[in-house]
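Deliverable D5.2: sample structural annotation.
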Amino acid sequence: QAEVLTLTGRKVAVLEVPDSPASSLRYRLVWRGIGRNGEKMPLGPYLLRIVAIDDEDGRQTQATTMLQLR
């Protein structure tokens, strides 16, 4: 799962993560600056949070990084 958040933590978009074999180590995510309700989001900084869950043992890994909407 991949989510775009404001700097205050409000979720503004959920990005589709394609299903692929476990051997695939690269994904390409595209966010065009459109919010969950179809509104154009203001330019500026946002957070991208990615959560991965291991299907075998249920372990969860999370990473967050900053992105800039220009």
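Annotation notes: The two ends are 23 Å apart (CA to CA). The CA atoms of residues 20 and 55 lie 13 Å apart.
The annotation will be released with the project's public dataset once the embargo ends.
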